[in-house]
Inverse folding.
């Protein structure tokens, strides 16, 4: 009996020193794994050594598991999803421009937009908040990960370099170049040359052709005006029609006015909203003036008409003498 008590005493001390919540069989297995109690160690020292070994083993195991699942720590940082597809944006003058910034694994980092002009940097947005004094700028977040900068009513001065930044150390930066283009609107003659003046005779059909090019955003609504009067939906006069052709990269809009009268004379404009406008001055004349009645005539026809009138006047003066 005495021998049994002497044998159990060290084990009892070992059991009493095991912290609450650690199962004895776990310690026993670690002792077996790491060689048990060494010579000269007390039971409590052996227990602490075994627990330290157990903690070290479990930490190494967790690190290996985390590396196997998530990869290196560098791979856990945020990154831009489509870096190559968002670095050059073209927007039409007067339209709304969107600068995309899709970010994966953002976690607790913050996204900001800045405008860079040489060495000068201007903060536009920070997180979901806008810091620009220009109300046209705002952060338009698109689920799930697009921190999109929105610029309304784009102006020529908006063209330049922007950056989407992530608050890592050092910051990750996505540079974006915004280009602003203005459509080119021209009224042309039958030969395709730009014209600023046309002549028609009474009773003929006025035909004005307008071309719109350099449009990054397709639009079909072209507005025709005679002075301040809009013609697209004019039903009071009658005989007015507009045909728009988008079969090519250049939009062509043609205005037809049947049975022209002197009251149809004046300035005609073809416009794409408030962005771009082309204009032509139309003369509707009574009588026969062949030099001025050619469709598609311009300044040359006006000069020809003036020359005819001048020669006629000189001939009349010579006869009077």
């Amino acid at each position: 009996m005495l021998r049994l008590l002497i044998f159990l005493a060290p084990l009892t001390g070992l059991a009493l020193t095991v912290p609450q919540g650690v199962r004895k069989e776990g310690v026993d297995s670690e002792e077996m794994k790491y060689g048990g109690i060494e010579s000269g160690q007390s039971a409590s020292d052996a227990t602490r050594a075994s627990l330290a070994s157990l903690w070290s083993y479990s930490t190494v195991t967790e690190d290996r598991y985390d590396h196997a699942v998530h990869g290196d720590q560098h791979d856990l940082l945020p990154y831009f999803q489509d870096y190559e597809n968002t670095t050059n944006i073209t927007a039409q003058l007067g339209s709304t421009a969107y600068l995309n910034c899709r970010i994966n694994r953002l976690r607790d980092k913050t996204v900001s937009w800045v405008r860079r002009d040489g060495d000068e940097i201007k903060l536009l947005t920070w997180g979901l908040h806008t810091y620009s004094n220009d109300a046209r700028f705002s952060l338009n977040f698109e689920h799930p990960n697009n921190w999109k900068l929105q610029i309304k009513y784009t102006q020529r001065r908006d063209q330049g370099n922007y950056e989407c930044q992530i608050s890592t150390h050092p910051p990750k930066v996505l540079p974006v170049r915004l280009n602003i283009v203005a459509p080119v609107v021209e009224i042309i003659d039958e030969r395709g040359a730009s014209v600023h003046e046309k002549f028609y005779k009474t009773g003929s059909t006025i035909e004005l052709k307008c071309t719109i090019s350099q449009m990054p955003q397709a639009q079909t609504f072209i507005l025709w005006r005679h002075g301040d009067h809009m013609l697209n939906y004019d039903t009071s006069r009658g005989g007015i029609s507009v045909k728009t052709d988008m079969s090519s990269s250049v939009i062509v809009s043609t205005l037809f006015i049947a049975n022209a009268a002197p009251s149809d004379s004046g300035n005609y404009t073809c416009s794409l909203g408030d962005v771009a406008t082309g204009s032509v001055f139309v003369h509707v004349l009574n009588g026969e003036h062949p030099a001025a009645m050619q469709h598609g005539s311009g300044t040359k026809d006006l000069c020809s008409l003036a020359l005819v009138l001048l020669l006629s006047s000189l001939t009349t003066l010579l006869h009077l003498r």
Notes: The two ends are 164 Å apart (CA to CA). Residues 2-73 form one domain.
